[in-house]
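We include this case.
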Amino acid sequence: MSEPSGPLSDILVVDLTRALAGPQAAMMLGDLGARVIKVESATGDDTRAWGPPWAGEGGGHAEDSTYFMSANRNKESIVLDLKDPADSEVLAALVRRADVLLENFRTGTLGRLGFTVARLHELNPRLVIGSITGFGHDGPEATRPGYDQIAQGEGGLMSVTGIEQPTKVGVPIADLLAGMNLAYGVVAALHERHATGRGRVVRTSLLAGVVGVHAFQGTAWLQGGRVPGVSGAHHPAIAPYGMFATASAPVQVAVGSDGLWRTFAATVGLDPDDPGFATNRDRVAHRDDLIAAIEAHFATEPAEHWLDLLLTAGVPAGKVRSMDDVYAWDQVRSQGLVLEVDHPAYGPLELSGSPLRFDDNAFSGGRRTHVAPPTLGQHSEEIRKWLGREGT
């Protein structure tokens, strides 16, 4: 493992998590320079088998899924059986040295393995413990198992996504939000520790992550008394703000003010003074007529024509890019959003990068050197030696 750099380079994270939400949180801390030791069972993180596609596919290797690769860069891997007393002592030795421990077991599982919060803080009073569950750590449904698909539905996100019926978001957004929230909370707890000298427990859940981003859809009900439904590719409270057909490919348009509406209308050949569309309230009330009018104009020219006109006029507009187009786009590459790493089994790999950059570092996450996701148990011997527990 290369020497880490970045704002969290003095932090050691013990990552007991698997699947996606917890590993995402640990990876975010690793992107910021923390040393992350991923503890896996003999069969490994479940997501290693969540393929196809597989890392190294076509090159003679098909052991780890690309799903696993998406959430486990900048980590080391040690294999431990936490039901084995000897391996339990190895974990205890890691905890004594750690700054952060992350776990996403079902409520109560870690305690049954001998690592209650009380024992963890007895081993290391400065330890920050980050914990993710599906539905929360208490309450009437705390013991329910949680996966992204279930949380998207139970948390209301699917009810406002889709064209004619509730639809899952195309990425595991409940998992990713929970991971982001946990990393955010852990960093806050580490900051607090500078003043108190003690760690604390940070908890979140897949449900909390989804409900926490309801934004205006949540207040539509809580304050407005309206139950929002699916709104397809158009914003439910702003118009025109959505996806429109052209003579070739669809174009996205975001007209966020009445002043911008006048610019947009004049640019595409509509009447800026049409009384039915004068204000956003009017445009939302007459949304179907507005969409039909815009698409009638857009049907006369290809997407590139309209994008050139709109962007030149200062109207926010864009394409609907496929994944291959996104990763080939010079703007994405310029922002450090694609990392090149060298994997011990699969050779050179490209991975999605961190969304953060710091002003003294052109690389994502503030880390100068990124490391490929580990093979199962890749660092077991090295970590045991570091702990002085060779042969145990």
